[in-house]
Amino acid sequence: MLEIHDLSLSVSIQGQLVEAVSAVSLTLEPGRVLGLVGESGCGKSLTAQAVLRLGEYQGVTRTQGDILLDGQSIFSMPDESLRRMRGGKVAMVFQEPMTALNPVFSIGSQLIEVIRLHLDLDKAQARTRALSLLGDVGLQDAEMLLRQYPNALSGGMRQRVLIAMAMAADPDYIIADEPTTALDVSVQKRIIALLRGLQRERGLGLMLVTHDFGLVAEMCDDVAVMYAGQIVESGPVASIFDRPAHPYTRALMACRPEVGEVGEALQVIPGQVPAPGNWAKGCRFAPRCELVRDDCQLAVPAAERWHDGAHAARCLHVPEAS
Amino acid sequence: MNRPVLQAHGIGKVFSAEGMFRAIGKDKHAVADVSFDLHAGETLAIVGESGSGKSTTARLVMRLLEPSAGRVFWDGEEVTALSAHALRPMRRHIQMVFQDPFASLNPRMRIWQSVAEGLRVHQPDLSRQERRDRVAEALDICGLDESGMDRYPHQFSGGQRQRIGIARALIIEPKVLVLDEPVSALDVSVQAQILNLLKDIQDKRGLAYLFISHDLSVVRHMAGRISVMFGGRVVEQGKAADVFAAPMHPYTEALLQARPIAHPAERTQAATSKGADEGLAETGCAFRTRCAYTREDCAGFDNVLQHDTVACLHPLHQQK
Q1: Which pTM was predicted?
Q2: Do A39 and B187 lie within an 8 Å CB cutoff?
């Protein structure tokens, strides 16, 4: 089990530490897909990267909370275990398939490097494993592909290679940060099917970071919606889609072009995500909320829970219908 | 109907293998035989995946690229053969908005200077104050406060930068906007704001849009007519409502099926259709290696549009 407990992160802006993620708690179980949803600048990528302690290299500081991987804190791991955990137990798939591969090494050498880093295999065995991984992610002509360089591959093929790399050491968890955003719509659907298939087959825990509720509808079992560094709503996917409770969740769902009626203006969320340091005192969504009332400005609402505690929302005025 | 504000007659573009590539390369037909008319107040969407030739088509009608074949007309006047110099005063007629609002603004120019660039070319007699007033007006149309005029691009969010890009295109009051993936780099929430803004501007000013996109959900909201491109050619074209209701080309159908779903209840078991993800066949119908319905005679198809509607030997629906 991967547990994020009460995690707060700060980033350094012009020499000042500013809180960017506030007391986030999440649980990712093996065999489940958790969607972490929100607009750019909500802190979702920072949260996801914290699971591999990647933010530390970019001046992100943990100010409170912990992340437990199968009961062990990743912040107290010695360097060697941390190195083996990254890619070994928890792997990451990034958004940009165009930049995540090194252009001067062949696909084979990059893939085999990852395999040998984590598994005790000789070159020939690693090569065999590389071939079978490329087959697993639906790439044909694996032999030839091993000799090719990233520039010869299309975006969809590169993303498949990156997924093969993430699978190299048979991880228990995969963190995928906007894995399909940079791809064509038709390729997106196939990458989604691939990820979903691998996840089911191997009982992976998958954390999917996205701004797109369409992707959530397609893939996720559980959903956590982030706004301005906080989780504002969380619950099982069906419950979130059938009874979205937080006005931010509702607004984010309603502005999708596939939901709106042709000929009518699309729904929008007025304004934009406030930068860390500019968050409202009470409910952080209040300045953009259509349903805002006086008391919303006063206190940060605690998360209300219902449906046996599975569905929760941080709003003082959850609409009746929820 | 009035004469079209933008016309393409059989335009094509061949990138020839030259210099060090001559020995190994083949000529690449990026776009072949694309024709359309665009009238004031309407939106024509060109839809297709990366490499389909849709952005090349946009650049050809903008005359940012030299067509290898065919003719381009702006407001009824042929511009295909005009020199860059002769073209310059005519560019006020047609303007472009690019995909990447981060890359399309000069980071070292203040916003008002970037937005005013078109004025300096097309209305050089304006005073500085007049130019600033026009910029303020254009920014206002795009929902931006004039107080941002003296700031730099990095001080704006992605959505705001795209508004600035639109203001910059609008300032010289063109009749046609060519929009190349104007919202695909933006968050869903910001996308909706920009799409509504574009609709609004079109309703008020009767602009014509050539809307380039790979995303049919977005296109459904914007376009009256659609041309679907694949492998450099138009494979289906028609009224948006007809194409969405009854796609005739298997590629159009595949694009429609690839749209995101609205609710988890619509999940289908493993959307793995037949054929390859990407790429095109070198002979016969370009789509046949990816087509779920391909038959033997597809290998001999010449990819030409039939009845100006669909380029397929076995269309999925009958011609209307």
Answers
A1: 0.87
A2: yes
